[in-house]
Write a structure and sequence with these properties.
Length: 370
């Protein structure tokens, strides 16, 4: 057993070693000439774990690290919640901190997606604290923003959002139940989809100007229903039939709809992670080629094949106490094993970046070496 492997196992502690869920083959010592850190994954999706990639100035610290995207020129933009610093940090390709912006979103930074459009690249933010969808340029200048869609209707014609009362009998305005979690883009017409994952459990479609178009989904466990539709992604792996894929976190599955919001199918992988479920509370999706990356809040990142079966798990945490633990301390974190993956993206080079829902913030680069 090599030194890096011994160090990794020592860091996990005795409990992990006796756990029947411990899968020591999931992370290896460095086995490539140009790799100095631990390796995770297999075959075409084998990665070097680069912990601490982000080079932060002393006065700037990450908080709950919710989303990460790559710009055309290789910069990485991270959306997080610290509370005392700007919510959006920009890094160069080597991890050097460039700048930050977005202090107005500190209490609600959550979903963030990037789209190249006429006029440049733009970010779409789903802010849980402000209950808004915001479109900005890469410097944070606002193009448009809006709150809940007043015209959204359920299948029976009743409004999705209406005044109500909480358990204590206190009046709640209609907009109080709109808590958007992420965004996906129509592949051709400029429209986009918003998952109200922490609110109504519906998905809303808007045109390129941000004007309301339609609604689908709704709370439940049946076909076409959703429970915490946390992430949303346009799956174009079948170019002839692109679909909207939803990380239906509360139902532990992926839910597929066509571009007009008609239900197509639910998907669950057969293999199970240490957390006991295939996708380990799926948070979001991103694609490269025929594969998807799916961060699971319960301590694992999955690489999914074209059938959405698990091709390999990355950083599958054997420690049940760590998984989905927002307060897990830095000194107990082990490089190569995730605590609460929340956002992940492929880069053009095939690397994977993972942001985690932990109070102290965590951003990991997985460098493709296969």
């Amino acid at each position: 057993m090599d030194t890096s492997r011994r160090s990794m196992i020592k860091g996990l502690g005795a409990a992990a070693l006796v756990s029947p869920l411990f899968k020591p083959f999931a992370v290896f010592g460095a086995d490539k000439a140009d790799a100095k850190n631990l390796i995770t994954g297999k075959d075409a999706h084998k990665y070097e774990v680069i912990d601490g990639w982000a080079q932060l100035p002393d006065e700037y610290k990450l908080g709950n690290t919710h989303s990460v995207v790559e710009t055309a020129d290789g910069r990485m933009i991270v959306h997080h919640q610290n509370g005392s610093v700007d919510s959006t940090a920009v890094f160069d390709p080597a991890g050097k901190f460039i700048k930050s912006w977005g202090k107005e979103y500190v209490g609600g930074a959550h979903g963030m997606q990037l789209r190249k459009e006429e006029g440049g690249e733009f970010l779409y933010l789903a802010t849980t604290g402000q209950r808004q969808i915001v479109k900005t340029d890469l410097d944070g200048n606002v193009v448009f923003k809006f709150g809940y869609p007043k015209d959204a209707k359920k299948a029976d014609g009743s409004p999705v959002y209406a005044p109500s009362k909480d358990k204590a009998g206190k009046e709640r305005p209609a907009e109080a139940t709109f808590t958007p979690t992420n965004i996906a883009f129509h592949p051709t017409d400029g429209s986009f989809y918003v998952a109200d994952g922490y609110g109504s459990n519906y998905v809303h479609r808007f045109n390129a100007k941000g004007e309301y178009m339609s609604t689908f989904g709704g709370p439940g466990k049946g076909d076409g229903q959703l429970t915490t539709p946390h992430g949303i992604y346009t799956d174009t792996r079948d170019a002839a039939k692109p679909l909207i894929a939803i990380a239906d976190r509360g139902n532990e599955r992926l839910a597929y709809f066509d571009l007009d919001g008609k239900f197509v199918k639910n998907v669950k992988a057969s293999q199970k992670a240490n957390a006991g479920t295939p996708y380990a509370h799926p948070c979001n999706l991103d694609g490269r080629g025929e594969y998807l990356v799916c961060p699971g809040l319960a301590g694992v990142v999955s690489i999914l094949d074209k059938k959405n079966e698990v091709y390999t798990y990355l950083g599958d945490n054997p420690d049940a106490a760590a998984r989905r633990n927002n307060n897990w301390p830095k000194e107990k974190m082990v490089a190569g094993f995730f605590v609460a993956p929340h956002g992940a993206c492929f880069t053009k080079a095939g690397d994977v970046f993972v942001g985690e829902w932990v109070k102290i913030g965590r951003l990991t680069k997985l460098r493709l070496i296969a």
